[in-house]
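User: Sequence recovery, please. Input:
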């Protein structure tokens, strides 16, 4: 969506109110004014599209996924506590593209721990997850899957399927997060059962991809 520079004249008290609200929402003056005018004139902005997606996703999330403070309209942040000593947490960050093309965004999963062994378990688990997802997409003839793994952090692209409405995309994101988090929590309850957990994920993700692409 193209943007251009325009000059408008506003009173000081309006600008102060706009700046205060923009700061509260984690955006800037121009974006907020654009959103306000778009809503008033029934125009769809990237922020409105992303909010519709996230609203639909949030409605489906299981209670184990706790919503964190959202500082940007393009980002959804969640966390879950693991059934492991010291109760470490795993954070999920979904970041949507303002102008999606092949991908609508990215998912980042990160473990919050100083325990080296737990980080190794995380890396081994998500290495297996990436392998499963890449193979299942390849078997279905879907190219473009991309994932990366660094110490305690897994990132993958989210495909943008134009067949789905924004509401449907949000629902698919919610379903995917519930599915992934369920296997994550089950694995960390007994990290020695890596192969079992990967096999479980292979089964549930295969069934998921029969219905949705993400």
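Assistant: Recovered sequence (214 residues):
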């Amino acid at each position: 969506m193209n943007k251009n520079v325009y000059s408008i004249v506003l009173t000081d008290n309006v600008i102060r109110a706009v700046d205060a609200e923009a700061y509260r929402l984690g955006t800037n003056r121009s974006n907020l004014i654009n959103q306000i005018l778009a809503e008033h004139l029934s125009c769809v902005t990237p922020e409105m599209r992303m909010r519709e997606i996230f609203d639909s996703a949030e409605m489906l999330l299981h209670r184990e996924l706790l919503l964190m403070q959202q500082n940007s309209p393009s980002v959804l942040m969640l966390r879950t506590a693991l059934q492991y000593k010291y109760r470490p947490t795993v954070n999920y960050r979904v970041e949507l593209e303002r102008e999606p093309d092949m991908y609508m965004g990215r998912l980042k999963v990160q473990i919050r721990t100083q325990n080296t062994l737990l980080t190794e378990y995380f890396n081994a688990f998500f290495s297996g997850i990436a392998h499963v997802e890449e193979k299942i997409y390849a078997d279905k003839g879907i190219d473009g899957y991309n994932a990366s793994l660094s110490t305690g952090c897994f990132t993958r692209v989210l495909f943008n399927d134009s067949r789905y409405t924004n509401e449907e995309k949000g629902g698919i994101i919610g379903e995917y997060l519930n599915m992934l988090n369920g296997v994550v929590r089950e694995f960390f309850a007994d990290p020695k059962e890596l192969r079992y957990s990967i096999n479980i994920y292979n089964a549930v993700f295969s069934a998921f991809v029969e219905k949705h692409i993400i």
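The mean pLDDT is 90.
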